[in-house]
Amino acid sequence: MADVTIQHVAKAAGVSPSTVSNLLNGRAHLMLPETRQRVEQAIEELGYQPNRSARNLRTGRTRTIGLVVPSVGNPFWGTFARYVESAALAEGYNVLLCNSERDPNREQRYIEELWSDGIRGLVLCSSLPSLDHVSALMKRGLQMVAFDRTAQIGDPDTLVSISIDNTVGSELATTHLTGLGHQRLAFVSGALGSVNRKDRFRGFAAALERAGLPSEGTLWPGAAEQRFGDVESAELGRQAARELLSADEPPTGIVAINDMCALGVCRGVRDAGLEVAKDVSVVGFDDIVLADLYDPPLTTVRQPMQDMAAMAISELKARVEDSGTSHGRSLLLRPELIVRESTAPPRADR
Amino acid sequence: MADVTIQHVAKAAGVSPSTVSNLLNGRAHLMLPETRQRVEQAIEELGYQPNRSARNLRTGRTRTIGLVVPSVGNPFWGTFARYVESAALAEGYNVLLCNSERDPNREQRYIEELWSDGIRGLVLCSSLPSLDHVSALMKRGLQMVAFDRTAQIGDPDTLVSISIDNTVGSELATTHLTGLGHQRLAFVSGALGSVNRKDRFRGFAAALERAGLPSEGTLWPGAAEQRFGDVESAELGRQAARELLSADEPPTGIVAINDMCALGVCRGVRDAGLEVAKDVSVVGFDDIVLADLYDPPLTTVRQPMQDMAAMAISELKARVEDSGTSHGRSLLLRPELIVRESTAPPRADR
DNA sequence: TTCGTTCACTGTAACGTTGCAGTGACAGTA
DNA sequence: TACTGTCACTGCAACGTTACAGTGAACGAA
Predict the structure, then answer these.
(1) Distance CA A33, CA B316 (A)
(2) I need a labelling partner for A83 at 20 to 30 A (CA). Which of A8, A203, B213, B336 fits?
(3) Integer distance in angstroms from CA A22 to C1' C18?
(4) Domains of chain B
(5) How far apart are CA A229 and CA A191, in angstroms?
């Protein structure tokens, strides 16, 4: 119960707290080897762990960065969180992981809590188009990397954006379908609230245009007003597929906003008594682990997650440690189309 | 950059820091309404956020609990983390989420870091059979709930264990298969290192015995020495299915250690040119979101996650706040078999 | 008038750590 | 012998907050 403090260690080793502190902070050369050994032994025997609150208070620094994701219930974010954590650990940082559940209030509350915990570096995976709710803290010195969100006009000056080029990714996916000969395509998504969702639709429309196809009416209207979380997006895809496939001239190719949604679409295709690939081609986005395990394995657009996580951490580390007048920048990585078995040429009779 | 402290607020409002502190700590009745308003306005205008390190240092309390999971890359843990977080938030607590990656050193390191952050309540989802590495901290007052791990002989006195009855769950799954008429069953798992994996195999064997079937040779030997992480367990299932189904007398029913593994098994079944349910029945464990989305939807054993998360938090809260001489206990919840379409009677000709 | 009480606020001493500015002992130099 | 330097260590003040004890003004009662 009674915590072991640096004083207890000092007394046990017969030195002053300062000496213990010196040892703890890499100044072991300031003492005799035998003193050092006595102190180390005392630390060991008492099981002393420095009180981090006191240390943070005193030094003003923290070896912790914050990570805010929409939901770890989504394997995409879960996987990303692991990469970020590994990258941070390798740089000597800890990660504090928070779930915003795509709720702006919760997101803001978490960020303020991280700030008051002394955290000055943050990786934010926000669904929100505007960053107004954090710009005040950024002015005070919060360093931030926005992930999976391309830079916007009104963004804070020092913001770093790391993202794939969503427009290109979506074009890649869509062009794959048009290249296979599909003429009637649909885009399935929840409300296009976030920047990258808009970009993905833009890429989809651009690819259609390039193939000489109309883009009107290709956006599934079912979710326009709804707010689907990540877990529910599969259910949304299922519903969308059922509705789309019961139309007079159903689409033969469907581009989904992400893999969870695409898996739902595949399920909906089956619900409608059809077969994925043979009757309807489906493309996802993200390349989550399950994309390759699904039946049929999902054609999808892969994000280089590990690289992106490493970049996020190294940007943050540099900024938190230097705190020079580092300006914002934007890193757009190229996505990669992974062709598996959920896409095929359209059937001749459809 | 320059942080706003309670002193700045006090000066701006023309009061002492004590008065600001009183307002902050729910003692607003100690001041005039007009004073209160002045202070509130100053807080608002300066954007003051109390420094949590200082507060923790001073009070010795923390409104944060720790959550250590094997890997948020696994949707099972991701989902659980969300439930824990929601339950904690509802009780006024924050959650600090850590990934052990099933690495004992990393797990211990995280727990010690949580302790030195002033955290005194922890939900541990450990894969390790022994809790020796945390018992020292528990003696000093760390309150801990072990999740998904049944109580063991050598456990610390104050430990709370919350788990489903894994043996019963596995019996439920296996009896479902024998009830359908399956005679040749296999159990697919990575190394049976953890308590609950052993229990699940025990339940599997017990069900076989009850059905008058031999249990020798039913444990897939492929992973005995390997250490598979959660993400890789799907790959393991795939490999297991391929190997098992190429035998002379292949099993007609497979019980997998968890859903990710079961999904891998399904994929392996297809790799072998067979069909899930029709040729080989597959049962999983956990009922992750994807179980219902898979094709075919997976028959699996469901854990009442939300209830378990709420119980974990309320136990922890009571213990952290009272810190009376609360003794350990063990809560075993009953799992539920969810029958979907990955199981069917064996084919007559096999 | 004097005493006591209430009220609205403030002063102060911690909490555990850090890192600079000492301090005294001792050795080496002039 | 006196001075200078190095060495090994220590004293002290601060970081921002909290909560208890304390203060002085205003008012009511005897």
Answers:
(1) 44
(2) A203
(3) 9
(4) 6-50 (1.10.260.40), 62-164+304-335 (3.40.50.2300), 166-303 (3.40.50.2300)
(5) 11
User: Which of B82, B270, B289 is nearest residue A295 as measured by Cβ atoms?
Assistant: B270
> Which of B72, B133, B261 to mutate to probe the A interface, most A CBs <10 Å?
B72
Parallel, antiparallel or unpaired: strands B143-147 and B160-164? parallel
**Chain A hits for B9, Cβ within 8 Å:** none
DSSP E strands in B151-206: the ranges are 160-164, 185-188
Q: Highest mean pLDDT range out of A253-257, B28-32, B125-129?
A: A253-257
Contact B149, B161 (CB under 8 A): yes
**Residue range A264-316, pLDDT digits in tens:** 999 999 999 999 999 999 999 999 878 888 889 999 999 999 999 999 999 99
CA A240-A241-A243 angle, 5° bins? 65
% residues pLDDT > 90 (chain B): 65
Q: Looking at the DSSP assignment, which residues form a beta bridge with residue B160?
A: B145, B329
3-state secondary structure string across B31-44: CCHHHHHHHHHHHH
Query: How confident is the prediction for chain A on average, in pLDDT?
Result: 90
DSSP letters of A180-211? Answer: HT---EEEE-S---SHHHHHHHHHHHHHHHHT
- Both tokens of B198, joined, read 């052993």
The Cα–Cα gap between A274 and A270 comes to 5
Report the distance separating Cα B314 and Cα B268, nearest Å. Answer: 42
| Cα torsion through A91, A94, A98, A104, rounded to 10 | -60
Q: pLDDT for B157-175, tens place per residue?
A: 999 999 999 999 999 999 9
d(CA B245, CA A316): 50
Contact criterion met (CB below 8 Å) for A141 and B76: no
Residues of A in contact with B231 (CB under 8 A): 79, 289
Confidence bin at A252 (pLDDT 50/70/90): very high
Q: How far apart (Å, rounded) are the C-alpha atoms in residues A176 and A172? A: 6
Look-up: residue for tokens 């994925």? A276
Q: What is the mean pLDDT of residues B195-202?
A: 90
3 state DSSP class of B220: coil
